[in-house]
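Exam revision sheet. Question 4 asks you to relate a sequence to its structure. Input first:
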Amino acid sequence: MADESGDPSGDRSSVPDVAVVLPVRDEEATLAAAVASVLAQEFHGTLEVCIAVAPSTDGTRAVAEAQAAADGRVSVVDNPDGVTPSGLNAAIRATSAPVVVRVDGHAELEPGYVARALATLERTGAVNVGGVQEPRGRTPFERAVGRAMASRFGAGDARFHYGGADGPVDTVYLGVFRRAAIEAVGLFDESLLRNQDYELNWRLRQAGGTVWFDPSLRVGYRPRGTLGGLARQFFGYGRWKRVVLRLHPRSLRLRQVVPPVATLGVVGGLLAAPWWPPALVLPVGYLVGVVMAAVAVGRRPAMIVRLLAVYPAMHLSWGAGFLLGPPAGARPDGSGQDAS
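Answer key, structure tokens:
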């Protein structure tokens, strides 16, 4: 039986050391809390924390350097490219522990997260484990986005959004990795501005590894605070999913097909309706689905109204990005830089 340290044998000497890597950019408001949640983790191994700082428009670097000055376990490296996978790889290369924990600058680990993740790695033999992305909105709109992202209508069958059974999955939120496994497949693809987690997990699984979802692992996440910000986020997800599919066509999942199909149905139905009125059944059908989901998930009038905007912003922006295709300059190997 595992002890509370996360070591199944109870032998402290067998608990691996852990490196936590944080790629950050414009995270002045949330970085200190993210690092505090990491440093508060209790397990019997040793901890090293590396913050990769991209060029920022706020005081992110000052906050990161203050964290390093206050605790010798924390170090800071530069991420001049400014993109997430480059920052992740820089931090991974600057650390040495056999287990690598990814954390974002706007995420907060639950107490005991690392210990439980280590126990799950040992129990399952997986190369990557992760849990639930738990939205923690501070404004009414952020809470509505969180509700939408944590619902099946918003997230499809991605268990890390809403929970589910313990077991193998195609991807997880953030991740706790065996260093040897990710180094063997080449770390994160630095050409991918989005969807780099999913793509790395695909390569890990193709190499024979298992990606494991453990619902007892929870990470707090702050959703986007505006409708425009949410739409840009999901538009970028859709565009970069096309890049990943050019690299790995067999990685496509049903939940990734639904948004572009819905977008085609809504736009096509509205355009065709003046000449063929029955085409309205497609946008009307989608609207009915949105209303039903908003009522079921929102429950209160104000939340329902917000969800009526949030769901289409997520679905149709993702679908439009997917249909529009890869960003300008993105090559078949995924390279190219476009922050959308």
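Marking note for examiners. The two ends are 47 Å apart (CA to CA).
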